[in-house]
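Hi support team,

I'm opening this ticket because the web form for multi-chain structure prediction keeps timing out on my end. I have pasted the exact lines I submitted so you can reproduce it. The total is 230 residues across two entries, so I didn't expect it to be a heavy job. Is there a limit I'm missing, or should I split the entries? Thanks in advance, R.K.
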Amino acid sequence: QVQLQESGPGLMKPSETLSLTCTVSGGFISTYHWSWIRQPPGKGLEWIGYISYSGSTNYNPSLQSRVTISVDTSKNQFSLRLYSVIPADTAVYYCARARDFDDYFAWGAWGQGTLVTVSS
Amino acid sequence: QSALTQPRSVSGSPGQSVTISCTGTSSDVGGYNYVSWYQQRPGKAPKLMIYDVTKWPSGVPDRFSGFKSGNTASLTISGLQAEDEADYYCCSYAGSHTLIFGGGTKLTVL
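Hello R.K., no limit was hit. The queue was backed up. Here is the completed structure from your submission:
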């Protein structure tokens, strides 16, 4: 059974670059699509973007100018970079795997999430 | 993109049925049959409950069912159980390889 684990800094200052990594075990990252989704404290879910097994990426238009998602197949990991963070980027960040090989509409496996706080 | 519209809260007694609505536009919910629903218990990651409007992932009980009419999708939970108490989020494909979530609905089992 696939497992996903996020890792990254818990606390950041405004204007810094957030880097998160999702390590995948129990499955190959070179299949499926992989996504980042975040949730500000006490609020709803927000889709950030996804990367396909071919390496192509798609992003939320509201974040597109500040986001990069990449994959490292040698480490079975994919990553999120969010540039010039602001306090409103404070959230639990989840990585997720698509439900099926050719699906990028539904996310069937999730990491436990990691809280990132942006504060001066 | 604005979040899909969900009621902030719904409630029901054990054994009853509840329905959660998710309203979007013809550019998202109404334009594609790619609506999914997620259950999120406090402090936990979301769990996929319904995909492609009406389909169940393996292991999800058929007490959960999905439907769509026009720009509004809905999730119905029948035979309500205490363990169903959670937040529920809808999500829709919005074209151009983008997704949009609803604001979430808190289900209380009385």
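A quick check on our side: Chain A has no helices and eleven strands. Let us know if the file doesn't open in your viewer.
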